[in-house]
Each structure stands twice: as structure tokens, then as C-alpha cells.
Amino acid sequence: MLTETSSPSGLNNGFTESAYSPPSLDSAIALATKQLLSLQNEAGYWVFELEADCTIPSEYILMMHFMDEIDEGLQIKIANFLRTQQSADGSFPLYKGGTGDISCTIKAYYAMKMAGDAIHAAHMEIARQWILAKGGAAKGNVFTRIMMAMFEQIPWRGVPYMPVEIMLLPKWFPFHLDKVSYWSRTVMIPMFILCTYKVKARNPNKIGIAELFVTPPDQERNYFAHVKTPLGKTILVVERMGRLMDSLIPGFVRRKATAKARDWFMERLNGYDGLGAIFTAMVNAYEAMDLLGIPADNEQRRVARAAIDRLLVIKDDMAYCQPCVSPIWDTGLTSLVLQEVDRYERNPQTQEALKSALHWLASKQLRDEPGDWQIQRPNLPGGGWAFQFGNSYYPDVDDTAVVALALVQADKREFTENIGRAAIWIAGMQSRNGGYGAFDADNDHYYLNHIPFADHGALLDPPTADVSGRCIMLLGRLVHQHPEYQAVIDNCIAYLRTEQEKDGSWFGRWGTNYIYGTWSVLAGFETAGVSKDDPSIRKAVMWLKSKQRTDGGWGEDNFSYHGNNIRGVFHTSTAFHTSLALLALLSAGEAGCREVESGVNYLLKNQQLNGFWNDKSFNAPGFPKVFYLKYHGYDKFFPLWALGRYRNEQLAAL
């Protein structure tokens, strides 16, 4: 068995024999498979916790006080959770081990204060001092300042001017809702109503956070100091002029715009899965319904609140709120994993689990339901899958590629129509540059990221390498029977070549980060038939090998999203990143290399007694630089996938 030797550079440069004997490859795979099967829901799906930073649980407490619907017991549990997430310096990071974030820390402080924590308690004192040292609460981001305006902690001039009349702008106008991402639309439209009417939180205990401001909020003049670009400053001037003219807007125009905004989000409430199936949009819609006078016993309002509560993860003494749930994604990926593991064995229990999972997935396909994606592709028939249990207006290109591939690999005639519709939809959702966004085509109006509202830099859904790689991963399996997809694949490969970084890696938009992106593309290249000797693949392989750590694993920090070119680097290896690196190298034809053997050895040595692995770190961005996630399933099924693929490569070589 091979283990690492020390290296001054921190990179792999040789291995020596060790007396330690990890579990055998077969026994490790068998145990992990057994445990994964045990987590399948009786309906056929898998769903793992999806954890975000403390912003979401803090906002849940803030929502309860906004509406005066306070569940004291739940509030105590959420506050208990928040305290466990605080860093030693008093701040709250966007991901475990990250640096403090002022907006997250403001919201966590406010939520804990609402939950009854005294401001002179040690954890509150140190949080407050950290916030003040960063310039105070006025430095919070746009969403944080909107929250503070609603709670009457800052004047409304401290937030961007977002009148509901935006709903009436023509499509040719530089800003139009069709030009931003689905998550931006679902969050913004109910927010327009809340901001236009300057809603006031009920805040029954009248709790404020005046102590967090360096300059009294009414005297603060630098709420938009973050706006630096000429375009942004110009738009800010236009916003201020608009604010001055707000009182001149005719009442009938405001009523028309309000009705259009109301009808838009009410049409998309999405039952018990909620508006957009994402927490922030759901809360904004719920609060807007209250402002619009929809009574508490109204069925749609009641269900809208229930949808929010379905995101809660409640344990014995702690609770937190998820930003959304991921059953389609979890089940699609788990199905691919089990298909790989069972490629030669055909274990009856695994086959039965796959049968149940694939039938559940097939039943969730979206067909001819209305969807916002149709604005760009009005003549394209539906055929996608959402990310969540239900989100019919917003099928996800990435999920669709994964689920359809699992159906293809099942090789069952009963899924022929599902696969055909999915492939047509995927091919039709290609953007003009050859790549794929997650939910929309050609959603790339980059100038909109300079408007004052967009300080999070996540207003758009442009094509990305990782999603594009998975699309050709699917279409490459179908092109022999459907040669009409070859042009789509060729255009996507050309796009991916332009996206490759100089060092050989690819950026990972939806997973951390360059290791994830590189795996996504190499897996797609393999299926699409790109030669293993292709220079782009060879360059990617060299990059991956150069990033292997001395213990044989790989790791990558979310800090790689923050512009310091720290790619494929972390203070520790993780099972998740090691698995991705292995899968990428195996896709590139590197099954027999020393780096793959040592990476497999790392996974075997670090498997836990319960059959899984135990990564502490967050492993994906919701939005790079501002919002991060921990998919709790990733350290359960990705290592199994890598081990299964490695074993199959060995068997195929015999």
C-alpha cells in the first residue's frame, strides 16, 4: 500500500510503504454502498441536508419578529445553533473556517438579540466590536440594509430605489426582469412591493441595533460607498433622481404595477415548495402577501408559510433553516454512483434501489408546464427537471443532464420518452456562445452586475464550464443514435476550450471550485469522445497532479473564489475534492498512474466506521464570494463513486 512522503512544496513527489492497512477496496465499497442504500426514502429518493451560513437561520428569526409570529421554543434552538457558529474573533463567516462577513455577522447579532441574548454577554460584545471595527452596520450589503430599513434601523435612502413600476418597463429597456436570473426575479419582485410601500416590521419587542452604527443612521451619508464603477455611479445618480420623483408617479400607475407584481409571484407560489423553492424568495412573498392584505387564514398564505417551515432542520437542542432542498440533484447523482458501483455486480438490493429511484425521478420530469425559461426559448418543448421536490417554473439544466444520464445508463425502454424530451430540451437551452447556464439561455447581460442593487454580483445566470460539461456528458451518450446533437456538442466543446484557465483548470460555478470545474469538463470530454491526448486534457491532468497533497488527497478552499488565484489549494485534503480529482483523472485515462493509486489510498484510509467520510468544510457556492453551501451528501456518495470507478477500471484492464 502506498502512502505519502513529506514534500517541501506541499505537493506530492513520492510515496513509501506503510505498515497501516486500510480496508480493502471491495469491503470499503460494500460498506459505503450498504449505508447509502439505507438512507433512501421509501418513495425512492435521497435527500441530504443542505446547509448555508448563518444568514438563513438568522433571517428566519427576523421573519418571526417581522410578522410577530414568534415560536419561542424554535427561536431558542436556532439561537443555540447560531452561537456554535461564531468565530473566535466574534464574527460569523460565510463558510466554516472562512473570514468574518459583516452582513452575516449583523444579521446573526440582530437575531440573537431578538432571541433574548443580552448585548453585554461575551459573545454579543465581541461580535459588536468586530462589526464596529469594520465600519459598523452601515457597511452591510444591500439585502442587509433592506432588512434594517424594514425594521426602521436605517432610513430608506440607505437602500437602492426599487419602485414596483419596474414591472412595467418594456423589454428593450436596459433593465428588465427577463434579463436577470430566476433567483433574482423571484427574490426581487415581492421585494419591490415591500420597498415601494416602505413596509415596517411589526417587531413586537421593539428591538433595535443602534449600537452597531459608527455614525447615527440618519446622519450616515455613505451607504453606497461600495459603488465604484462609472456605470454604477451613473445608475446611482439616476436612482436618486427617481427617488425624488417618486411622489409624482400617478396612483393608477402604481396600482397597476403592484397588481402585476402581485399576480406574477402569486402565480408562481409553487404550493408547499414555495416561490422559486428558495428561502429568500419565499419569505419576501410571504411578507408581501401580508402587506397586500391577504388574510392569515387564506389558503395560499397558509401554504406559503408552511413551505418556509419545511426548510427547517430541527434537532434536540438546535435548529437551522436550509436555503432550499436538493432531492432531484441528490437522487440523480446517487443513481449515477450506484450504477457505477454495480456496473459488473448487479446486486439485487442495489438494482431494486435504482429501480425505485429512477421511477421516482421519471415521475418528476417537467413537460409542458409554463416556465420562465420559455421567454428565451418559446418554441422549445419542455423536458427538464427541477433541483427541488417541486419547482415547475424553473427546471435546472444541470439536474436535467444528470437525471437523464442516469436514465440512459439504466437502458430501459420505458424511459425512452423521458430521455428524448430531456435531450431535446438540453440541446435547445444552449446559449449563443455554445455554453449552458443553469436555468436560462443567454442570461449574460453583464452590465447589470454594476447596478447598486447587485453588490452581491449574482444577478445573472450566464453559461458556465461545469454545467456545460455535464450537458455534453449527456448528449455524448446519445449522439450515435442522434447525430443531430453533434453540432451542439462541437459548439459546447469550443466554448469549453475558451474557458480553460492558463494553468489547465476550469472554474467551478456550482461546486468548489477549480477541482470541481475540471472534473465536470473532463467527464464531459470523455463522454463526448475528445481524445485523451488532446492538449487541453493533458494540461488539465498536469494541473490536477500538481495539486495533490502529500497525504495523497486533494483539497480546495472557498477562498479560491475571492480573486487571489488560490486554485486547488487547502490546508487539508477532503474526501470530496479527492474524489473529484480521481474521477477527473480516470476520465482522462490516468487509471494506472501513481497519483490515482495514492488518492484511492487516501479515501480508504479515511473512511469512517459508519462507511462514509467526514468532511467539515463547505463544498459549493450558492453565489461565489457571498453565499456558500455544504451539501451533506457529497462526502457520502462522491468517494463511493471514485472508488467504484477505480475498481471498474481495474476490472476492465484484466
Detailed description of the structure:
The chain is mostly helical. The chain is 46% helix and 4% strand. It has helices spanning 25-38, 55-67, 72-84, 102-114, 122-133, 142-150, 182-196, 230-244, 251-267, 279-291, 299-309, 327-341, 348-363, 397-410, 416-428, 465-478, 486-499, 514-528, 535-546, 575-587, 594-606, 634-653; strands at 2-4, 15-17, 50-52, 312-314, 319-321, 620-623, 627-631. The strands form three sheets. A three-stranded antiparallel β-sheet has the order 3-7-6, with no helix packed on it. A two-stranded antiparallel ribbon has the order 1-2. Strands 4-5 form a two-stranded antiparallel sheet. It is globular.
Task: Please tally the helical runs, counting DSSP H or I stretches of 4 or more residues.
Answer: 22
Please state the CA-atom Rg, rounded to the nearest Å: 25 Å
Would you tell me the structural class of the helices and strands? mainly alpha
Tell me the helix content.
Answer: 40-55%
Overall residue-averaged pLDDT value: 93
Spatial order of the strands forming the largest sheet: 3-7-6
Beginning-to-end CA distance, first to last residue: 20 Å
What composes the largest sheet? 3 strands, antiparallel
Give the uncertain stretches in residue-range form: 1-20
Number of DSSP strand runs: 7
* Share of residues in strands: under 5%
What gross morphology would you assign?
globular
SSE pattern, N- to C-terminal? EEHEHHHHHHHHHHEEHHHHHHHHHHEEH
